């Protein structure tokens, strides 16, 4: 790697995964995902760099280059993975920011490790950024980095984006380290959220906790202004739209339906196996529809794909057991020879297979109890140029703000979920097309490129010049 960069991403993980070839040599492959796709062109244009953990504990690696990106591995020990990542990030902040749907753990050692690891990321960024560089810090694992980095390098332009919801003051208040976290974020020039509600929760918190005044999107510190704003993240619509037009994917979608026994309705859930995603709630609703006889035997198959996630965290182990028990019960009660109503896969899939599944599904069921955005909902919409297909979507997913033509549900209300799942299955083709057309227009316009470029434009333009125009552009969408 040569020299310092004028554009830097700082994220918990590097955008690459290591694969071991049959002959034992290791190579790096770009990880799938919208963030890297959206940012890659900017990286290439600006000689960008990305600082993040490379995924293996207790290993120090030198910076290396991949796909035109300079990658700066930040090392973590096994103990740090446990306390900073699985602990403070995923057992404290994750549940607290998601409406406390599981009890957060407040542990001082976890906090100390979180602080120390954030310091390491800030140092790595400070070393890699050239004078006046733009640095974009990602997500809840690194909320202290903006202030730490500003202390080291006041010349930088620093942005932060939170991918998960920002909670209301009443919940955030419980955090023993609430002041440190808020001051950490205020080190940024621009703090981005998925929804306007997250941004306003943050502004209110700053006033109540630190006595800071704000007006519109801007929070006033003694010597500078911090802009807070919503930038709803999205997917690579164009890429998905052309992928599902590929004859191979279309053939695979047909084949999937045949493999499922050609039922009248294929319902689909695709999630990381996480307690915020409401997987149990949707399976309960589907099981009751079978039990009540409102779905005829053999009429519908529910395919639930649950990507393994955070498997060493206690809550996640319990969740896996609960879901697998529930699937077993429903199938035990309603299966017949050659018909299994719930098909459950605890596996990851590649891009193409996932696209074929989206295309094969008549009803996509997305029922999180709380979700920052939910890209699965937008991916499903991007895959249905046929205008067939219905989206059942939780009101508590960020995506519900934009996808108003989905069958919106309160996932805590099992009758509501049942009703909307049935309505989606019974809708006329004309009704489905009407809803799908509007949702597709929205996702096509506000795709992930637009998300990244709007954030970066806002970050690179001084606050007072643009705040009014920017908020107007989001509202008008
Ligand atoms: P996540 O909680 O991970 O993201 P989501 O937005 O749905 O949730 O993204 C999941 C991604 O993983 C999707 O792109 C999906 O295609 C992929 N995926 C899921 N299951 C898979 C499987 N079995 N095999 C392969 N791929 C699979 C967090 C926040 C969200 C926010 C995103 C982006 O919790 O609210 O939308 O970040 O900001």
From TrEMBL:
Instruction: Please provide, in alphabetical order, the Gene Ontology terms of the cellular component aspect for this entry.
Output: cytosol
Q: Which SUPFAM superfamilies match?
A: UDP-Glycosyltransferase/glycogen phosphorylase
Pfam families assigned: Glyco_transf_20 (PF00982)
Q: Which CDD domains match?
A: GT20_TPS
| Gene3D superfamilies per UniProt | Glycogen Phosphorylase B (3.40.50.2000)
Q: Which GO terms describe its molecular function?
A: alpha,alpha-trehalose-phosphate synthase (UDP-forming) activity; trehalose-phosphatase activity
State the family it belongs to: Belongs to the glycosyltransferase 20 family.
Protein's recorded name? Trehalose-6-phosphate synthase
